[in-house]
Write a structure and sequence with these properties.
- With about 100 residues, this protein is mainly β.
- The strands form 3 sheets. Strands 1-2-5-6 form a 4-stranded antiparallel sheet, with no helix packed on it. The protein has a 3-stranded antiparallel sheet with strand order 7-8-9, with no helix packed on it.
- A hairpin with a 2-residue loop joins strand 1 and strand 2.
C-alpha cells in the first residue's frame, strides 16, 4: 500500500453507513471498527479492514450495542472496554 510523503495512506471507505463514536483496534495486522452510532442508532456491528486486500468486511457482531468504547488487543482477542449503549455505561466484553 503506497504511503504519502507525510506518512498517511488512503483506505477504501466502509461498506456500511456512516457512523461516529466507533472504537478501533488492530489484531493480526487487521484493523477492526467496533460499534459506534449513526444518529440515535447505537450499533453492535464490527467491521474488519485488510490492508492486503484494501477492503472492509463485516465480522461477528458484539452481543450488545456500544459507542464511545475503548478497544485493545491482548492474548489474541480484541477487548471492548466501557462505552455506553445510549442509556447506560457498559462493562468489558471480549470479542473472539
Amino acid at each position: 500500500m503506497p504511503v504519502s510523503a507525510d506518512g498517511y495512506f488512503n483506505i477504501n471507505l466502509f461498506s456500511v453507513r456512516r457512523r461516529s463514536g466507533a472504537g478501533v483496534g488492530v489484531l493480526g495486522g487487521l484493523l477492526y471498527s467496533v460499534g459506534g452510532h449513526d444518529g440515535p442508532l447505537v450499533r453492535k456491528s464490527v467491521e474488519c479492514y485488510s490492508p492486503e486486500k484494501d477492503n472492509w468486511s463485516p465480522v461477528a457482531e458484539m452481543n450488545f450495542c456500544r459507542r464511545n468504547a475503548g478497544v485493545v488487543a491482548h492474548g489474541g482477542l480484541l477487548y471492548v472496554v466501557g462505552g455506553d449503549d445510549g442509556t447506560a455505561n457498559l462493562q468489558v466484553s471480549p470479542l473472539d
